[in-house]
Amino acid sequence: MNISTVMDASRAAPVRRVLVLPILAVALVVAAAVGIAAGNVGIPVADVASILAQSLGLHGGADHTLRDVVVVTQIRTPRVVIAALVGASLGVAGAAMQGVFRNPLAEPGVVGVSSGGALGAVIALSSGLTAFGSWVLPVFAFTGSALTIGLVFGIQGISRRNGTATLLLVGIALNALLGAVISVLVATADNDDQLRGIVFWLQGGLDARTWEHVRMVVVPLLVGLVAITAFSRDLNVFGLGDDQARSAGVDVARTRTVILLLAALLIGVSVAVSGTISFVGVVVPHAVRLVIGPDHRTLMPASALGGATFLVLADLIARTAFEPVVLQVGVVTALVGAPVLLYFIVRSPQASR
C-alpha cells in the first residue's frame, strides 16, 4: 500500500463517514432495547424504558409487576450490557490487529490470547475450582490470556526479531499448542457435567451474566477502548509501511507492542466473561472499513459500535430463534460471520492481498 492509495481511501465517501457513527449509535440503542424486551417473557419496549427509568430513580410512569422488574433489571439488562462491552472490545481489538498486521482479515486471536484465556477457563472448569465462586472462572481466563501475551513477547524477545511476521508465527504456534492442551483436558474430563461446561465455554456464551460480571469488566474494557483508540493516527501511519512510519516519527516497535498489549487486554477481559466468541473481531471492522475507508480515527469508534450491536443482536437470536432451546452466542456469530467473511474474501480484491 502506497501513500497515494491511503490518501485516496481516506477521502472516500465523506458523507458515509459523517453518518456512520450516529447511525450505528441508534442501531445499538434499538438493538439493546429489543434485546431487553424480547425473550420467553415478552415485555413491551415502553415498559422496559419505564422500568429502567424507575431503577435510576426517575419517574417511570405506571407500576410494573415484580416479575417484569426482575427480568429487565437483573437478568436481561446486565446480559445486554456485557454483550455490548464484549462486542465493542472485540471489534476495536480486531480493527487494531488488522492495522498492526496490515491485513484487513486479521483477527483478535491471531497472537494466541483467546486460546490462552480459553485454556485458563478450561483449567478452572476441569479442576472443579469454579465451585468456590463465580469470580474463579473469569480470573483464570484473564490470567491465561495475560500469561499468553507475556509468553508471545518473551519468545519474540529471545528471537530478537521485532517484525509482525515473528509475532504471527509465535501466535500460530501457541494457538496450536494451547488448543492441543485444551483437547487433552476435554478428553480427560471427569464427568459429563464437567465436559458440558467446558464445551459451552469454548462455544462462547452470555448465560447467567449479572451486574457482578459487569462491575468486574467495565473499567478495564472502557479504559482499554479509550487507550487503544488514542493510537488511531499511528495505525493510519502503519498502513504506509514501517519505513514510512519511522519517517513520520513513530517508534514502530514500541507503538506496535503497546497496541498489541492493549488489544490483548480487551480480548483477555472479554474472554473472561463471555468465553471464546469468534468472527466479531474480523467481520465487523472489515465491513466497516469497506463502507467508510481505512481511517482509524473513524474506523475504531465505528468498529466499537458495530461490534456491540452485532453481539447484542447475536445474543438475541441465540435466546429467541429456537425457543425453548437456547443456543450459545458463539454459535450464532459463527453461523452469521463465517458466510459473511467468505463473501468478503470472494468479492473484495483487497482481501486476497
Automatic annotation (TrEMBL):
Membrane topology note: Multi-pass membrane protein
Entry keyword set: Cell membrane, Membrane, Transmembrane, Transmembrane helix, Transport
Family matches, as InterPro entries: ABC_BtuC-like (IPR037294), ABC_transptr_permease_BtuC (IPR000522)
Major location (coarse): membrane
Membrane-crossing segments per the record: 80-97, 109-129, 135-155, 167-187, 217-238, 259-287, 325-346
Domain of life of the native organism: Bacteria
Location relative to the cell: Cell membrane
Family: Belongs to the binding-protein-dependent transport system permease family. FecCD subfamily.
Protein name: Iron complex transport system permease protein
Lineage, top ranks: Bacteria, Bacillati, Actinomycetota, Actinomycetes, Propionibacteriales
